[in-house]
Structure prediction request, 133 residues.
Amino acid sequence: MKEIYRFTADTIECFTEDEVQTIALADDPVEPDNFIIITRLDDKVNASVDDGIGFLTPHSDYEMIGAIIEIALTENDLQLQIKPEFIEHYGSEFFQVNFDRSMRAGNKLKILEDSLVSLCDGSQVVLHLFEYD
Prediction:
């Protein structure tokens, strides 16, 4: 089991489709070897907002809900910690996605920040945002 699952992302996608908010970071836009996908579905059947937040990696067979403890965003990376009861499913407790130089260009980080704020709003997920230029 890896302690920290790390990779460098050159692709970011933040969108909402069929009422599902999706944030995806990957090492390739077409055929990624490494990626994380965080989703949020606000559904009346969910007992809480956290029941609608899912997390998927290439090392998990399926998305699990309520797995994320906290997310930190800096100008260089995104760090994510999952709950202990999900470590075996994901193979790691910590995930670090370093940003390729192209990710730091333009407004990609601002879009990611706004999407994370929206995704975490009203949930138990702790979101740390660090100032960046």
Q: What stands out?
A: The first strand starts at residue 4 and ends at 9.
